[in-house]
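Inverse folding, one chain.
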């Protein structure tokens, strides 16, 4: 049973920083795409950043240069460092994992999802 548990969300003023963590349990595949997605009520879910088994990152244009995705394989943890936060970054953030290393921020649906952590950025 694969389980993903996010943490690190919260409220911050514009220009501030947060670091999200996603602890992964029970994942036994040898390859992966792991990603961060966000969603606000009434809007479609948006891919924010993803990373493959070899550490190659992908970013949405809206966060490139401000967010950094990383992974600690020894700790089975995925991170998202968010700097220069803007009010439009406010959303529920979800981490996701899938054994297909190539899907990253493509159209394929990830197989495993966490419950989400709320990020609120005030102006």
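Residues assigned per position:
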């Amino acid at each position: 049973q694969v389980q993903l548990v996010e943490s690190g969300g919260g409220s911050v003023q514009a220009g501030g920083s947060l670091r999200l963590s996603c602890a992964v349990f029970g994942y036994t595949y040898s390859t992966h795409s792991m990603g961060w997605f966000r969603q606000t009520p009434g809007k479609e879910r948006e891919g924010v950043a993803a990373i493959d088994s070899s550490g190659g990152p992908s970013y949405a244009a809206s966060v490139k240069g401000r967010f950094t995705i990383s992974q600690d394989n020894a700790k089975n943890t995925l991170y998202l460092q968010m700097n220069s936060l803007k009010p439009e970054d406010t959303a529920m953030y979800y981490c996701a994992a899938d054994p297909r290393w190539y899907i990253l921020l493509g159209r394929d649906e990830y197989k495993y999802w966490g419950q989400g952590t709320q990020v609120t950025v005030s102006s």
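The mean pLDDT is 96. Residues 24 and 105 are 19 Å apart (CA to CA).
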